[in-house]
Amino acid sequence: MLLRNTLLYLPAQILAPLLQFLAILLWAWWLTPRDMGIFTIVAATQELGYLLFLSWFSAYALRFYDAGRPEGEEASYHAAENIIIFLAALLNAFLAFVIVARVLDMSPDADTVLAAGAFMATRSINIHLAERARAAHHIGAYTLLQVSGPALGLLAGFLLRPVMPLNATIAFWAYAAAHALAIVMAAPLVGMRPASPRLAGPILRKALAYGLPLLVAGGFSWVALNAVRYIAEGFEGAAAAGLIAVGLGIGLRGTTFAAMFVTAAAFPLAVRAWREEGAQAGMEQIARGGALLIAALAPATVGLCAITPDVSGLLVADSYREITQAVLPWAILAGAARNLRSHFPDQVFLLAEKSRTVTVIDGADAIATVAGAMAGYLADGLPGAVAGAAIGAVLAAVASFALAARMPHFTFPWADTVRALLASTVMLAVLLLFGQAESTTMLVLRITCGALVYGLVLAALHPAETLSFVLGLRRSRNWRALFRRQNTTRR
Hints:
By secondary structure, the chain is mainly α. The chain has helices spanning about 1-30, 35-55, 55-65, 70-105, 110-135, 140-160, 170-185, 200-235, 240-265, 265-275, 280-305, 310-315, 320-345, 345-350, 355-405, 415-435, 440-460, 465-475.
C-alpha cells in the first residue's frame, strides 16, 4: 500500500521540486543579487505567515479531516475553513506590508507591497489546499496544486524576460497569478464548499488543541530554516541574502526533492493504520516510510555533495558562483537533516498526538541553529553562517531520533539503512571515478550513471522486495487511477 500510494504521488513529487530547483537557477540569471534577496526574504516571510495564520488548521485537516462525516459536521467544517482561510489571507497581506515597507525599507514602492501581499496570500492558501488534498487522498488535486504554481510562475518569467527587465515585483505578481489559478481549479476537487462563515466551537477547539503546539513548533522550525537568510540581510543587506540564496536553495530543494519522492503518502497511511488496526500498525507504517525516506535521502546527500563543483561551475550565474560552491555542501547537510527529522521521527510524535514533543525539538533546533549561524558568521562570514546552521539541524535530528526510540512500538529500520548507505557508497565511488564534468551534458550523464548504479545496487540488496515490485507493476493495468481519489467517500 505504501509503495503503491508513493508511486501515485510521484508526478507531483518529481515535478514540483524540480521546477522549484530550476526556478532557483533561472531567476538567479534573471535577477540582480538585491532583487533575488528581496524575493528570498519575502518568500521566507510567506512561510512564516502560513505557519502563524493557517498551518495549525492545515495540520488539523491532515490528521482529522474525514469526508465521510455526517452532513452537519461536514458543513460546520467548511464554514470554519472558509473564514479561517479568508482571515489568513488578510493577515498575510498585512505581514507583506510589514516586511517590505519596514524590514526591507521599501516604503515608497507600493506596487511591491501589493505584489508581495498577493504572493504571500495565494501561496499560503495553495499550501493549505494541498494538505487538504492529501487528507482526502485526492492525488489529482494535490498534483495540480503542487505543480501549477511553480510551473506557471517560471513560465511567466521566461516569457516576460525578452519583453521587459525582470525584478522582484514582477516575480511576485507572476507567482501570485499562478497560485491563484491553481486554487480556482483545485478548490472544487478537494471539496471546498460555499458556506456561511462561522467558527463551530468543537471544530475550533480541537483544531487549536492539536494545531497550536504545531504552530509553535513550526515557528521554531521556520526560525531554524531561515535564520541564516535574515542574519545575512541584517549584517550585509539584501544583496548578501540574495548571494547565498542560490546555494541554500539548491541544497534545500535538492534534498527536499529526494524526500518528497516518498513522503506524501506515508503519514496519511500511518494515520489510517493507527485508526483501523491500532498503535503498533501505525508505528510499523511510520518505520516503513522512514526506510523509504532514508533510501531516497542517502544517495541525494552523497551525490549532491560529490557534484557541487560541477553544479556551481556549470549552472550558477557568475555573480553567485563562488559563494554557492562554499555554502552548498552545508546547505545539503542541513536539508537532509531537516527532511529526515520532519518526515520520520517527528511523525512518530504526531501520530501519537504528542505534538508538544515536536515543539520542544523544534525549539532546540531554532536555538542551536541561530547560535550556530551567528557564531559561524563571526568566524567565517556567510559560509560560516550556513555551516553553523547545518550543525544545528544535525543536532536537532539526533535529539528527535533519541526521543522517538523511547516511544512504544517504534523500531528504527537499521537493516534498510545499512543497505542504503552501502549502495550510496558504491555510487559515490563511481561518481568520483568520472571526475568533474566539463559540460552540462556530461553532468547529466554523471548524475544518471550514479542514479542507475545506486538503484541497481539497492535492488540487489533487496531481492525479495524488488521481485515483488516488478510483479506488481506487471499486474497493474489501470494507470488512470493515478489521479483518482483513493478513498471511497460517504456522502
